[in-house]
């Protein structure tokens, strides 16, 4: 397989995971089965290798102004230890990537998608050119591992200094972790469950991975592949670049305006304001589908006999015990309760439902 390896790829191979090429990285898609692993995270706790993700820090004179011009969320009122979801957009309002913005004391840290790492860095550095802002790619120096599931806090307490349970959702702290000082521990994730993401020196990745599995065994901690992660994020209504969002979509179409501050000027703000004023020709919707056949990317959606869109994600939901998916459809059809889907030549009815499909009890 011609793909980059994370510091943990050998651990996955030793555990007999099925390895696939994901965004140019050799990653575990599952260890047992996707559905069984997804169920396990919902009821207990799972461990995820996220070392393929990009990690960037912006610092130096003017870093806060630069980030504020490039991300869609409001950053100037962010307090240290706060995280916000945002997008990088072009002048025409289309999406370059979705990112997490971490407000540090004297810098801003971004977590970016693995497949967009190089172009995100190029975008950031192009806009930083001629300024004193330093764009530091930490991706190869920092490992990233996630705990996800209702028992995550119980496992985290065994290895973190202080009380990780006191960290608010979409917040982070710098604390001792696995004996290492000043490690970033964030209460974030991509599953819809409670959980944490840890950022620490890459050379410690194997030791930390093994230690987590050891101390988390009483809570049922086990490694989980990217297949279950994709199922879980879809149940939770979280977008995936290349599916719900891509180079052609805008935050308005993708129902992500909650992550956009149109009161400030950022790259693409004018175009998004114009689009909001005149309306979009398509909208992202969620749907359920009875039957055994899973909807797949690109399947055509119909309103009567008129083709009005296509599926962007689809899977069998082990939590809801039915097939679910997302699709872009014409705005005139987005408010309807029932549409249909072409499943390889067979027309099947779909029920349009609000996103997310699943929301954990708090």
Describe this structure in words.
This protein is an alpha+beta fold. The protein is 22% helix and 34% strand. The chain has helices at 9-14, 34-43, 63-70, 117-128, 152-159, 205-215, 226-235, 269-278, 331-334, and strands at residues 4-5, 18-22, 25-30, 46-49, 54-59, 83-89, 95-103, 108-112, 134-137, 142-148, 172-177, 180-186, 195-201, 222-223, 282-289, 300-303, 306-317, 322-330, 338-343, 346-353. Strands 11-12-13-10-4-14 form a 6-stranded mixed sheet. A 6-stranded antiparallel β-barrel has the order 15-18-17-16-19-20. A hairpin with a 5-residue loop joins β6 and β7 (95-103). α2 crosses α7 (226-235).
**Low-pLDDT residue spans:** none
Sketch the topology as an H/E string, one letter per element: EHEEHEEHEEEHEEHEEEHEHHEEEEHEE
Task: Count the E strands.
Answer: 20
CATH class category of the largest domain? Alpha Beta
If you average the pLDDT, what whole number results? 97
Q: What's the story with the biggest beta sheet?
A: 6 strands, mixed
Fill in the CATH topology of the largest domain: Gyrase A, domain 2
Largest sheet strand order? 11-12-13-10-4-14
Distance separating the two termini: 42 Å
Determine the fraction of residues in helical runs and give it as a percent range. 10-25%
Give the second-level CATH assignment, the architecture of the largest domain.
2-Layer Sandwich
H/I helix tally: 9
What structural class is derived from the secondary structure elements? alpha+beta
């Amino acid at each position: 397989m011609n793909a980059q390896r994370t510091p943990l790829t050998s651990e996955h191979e030793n555990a007999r995971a099925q390895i696939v090429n994901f965004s140019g990285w050799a990653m575990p898609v599952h260890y047992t089965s996707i559905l069984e692993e997804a169920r396990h995270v919902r009821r207990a706790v799972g461990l995820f290798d996220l070392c393929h993700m990009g990690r960037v820090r912006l610092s130096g004179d003017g870093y806060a102004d630069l980030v504020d011009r490039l991300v869609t969320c409001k950053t100037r009122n962010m307090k240290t230890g706060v995280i916000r979801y945002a997008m990088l957009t072009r002048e025409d309002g289309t999406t370059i990537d979705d990112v997490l913005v971490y407000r540090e004391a004297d810098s801003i840290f971004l977590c970016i998608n693995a497949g967009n790492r190089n172009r995100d860095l190029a975008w950031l550095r192009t806009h930083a050119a001629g300024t004193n802002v330093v764009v530091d790619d930490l991706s190869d120096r920092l490992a990233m591992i996630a705990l996800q599931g209702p028992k995550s806090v119980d496992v985290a307490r065994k290895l973190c200094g202080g009380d990780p349970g006191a960290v608010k959702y979409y917040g982070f702290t710098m604390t001792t972790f696995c004996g290492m000082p000043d490690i970033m521990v964030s209460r974030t994730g991509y599953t819809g469950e409670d959980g944490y993401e840890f950022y620490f020196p890459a050379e410690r990745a194997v030791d930390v991975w093994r230690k987590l599995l050891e101390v988390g065994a009483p809570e049922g901690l086990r490694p989980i592949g990217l297949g279950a992660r994709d199922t879980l994020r879809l149940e939770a209504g979280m977008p995936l670049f290349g599916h719900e969002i891509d180079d052609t979509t805008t935050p308005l179409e993708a129902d992500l305006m909650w992550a956009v501050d149109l009161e400030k000027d950022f790259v693409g703000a004018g175009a998004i304001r114009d689009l909001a004023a005149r309306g979009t020709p398509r909208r992202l919707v969620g749907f359920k589908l009875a039957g055994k056949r899973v909807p797949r990317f690109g399947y055509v959606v119909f309103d009567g006999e008129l083709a009005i869109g296509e599926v962007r994600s689809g899977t069998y939901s082990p939590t809801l015990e039915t097939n679910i998916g997302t699709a872009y459809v014409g705005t005139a059809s987005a408010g309807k309760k029932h549409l249909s889907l072409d499943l390889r030549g067979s027309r099947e009815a779909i029920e349009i439902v609000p996103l997310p499909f699943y929301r954990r009890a708090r």
